Amino acid sequence: MNMMNVNPNSASDALLDDMSEEMIIDQVSHELAEAPLAAPKRDLPAMMRKIPVTLTLEVGSARISLEELMQIGPDSVVELDVLAGEPLVIKVNGTAIGRAEVVVAGENYGLKVVDLDGLNLDMMAP
User: Fold this and answer.
1) How is the chain classified by DSSP, letter by letter?
2) What pLDDT score was predicted for residue 21?
3) Where in the cell is it found (predicted)?
């Protein structure tokens, strides 16, 4: 009779080793799935400098009735809420960032910045 020397403990140990290995793999896979992927490191200020924006200079506004609006025609004058000579509002994409004066730049109008108070330009400096 040929008897094999089988140790019952070694078979259960091997099974436990296989199970714990699978459990560790499952746990690591689960942790990796939940962990956010590391985004490539980028120089955000440099990227932001390339985004086009619309810079406008707001002269002023007037609140009028529809009746007054219907009476506006050529040569009409509508008084605005800004005093003559007062700095005008600089806006970037509709958001006020400071004040400026109108100047002539070559053949076009330009703006001369009086102050900037709504935009941190230091953050974007090279």
Assistant:
1) -------HHHHHHHHHHHHHHHHHHHHHHHHHHHSPPPPPP--HHHHHHTS---EEEE-------HHHHHT--TT-----SS-TTSPEEEEETTEEEEEEEEEEETTEEEEEEEEE-S--GGGG--
2) 55
3) Cell membrane
> CATH homologous superfamily for 44-124?
SpoA-like (2.30.330.10)
**Half-sphere exposure for 77 (CA within 13 Å, toward CB):** 1
Rg (CA), the chain: 36
Structure tokens at 84: 């003559």
Instruction: Place 50 in a pLDDT band, splitting at 50, 70 and 90.
Output: confident
The burial class, CB within 10 Å (0-12 / 13-18 / 19+), for 82 is middle
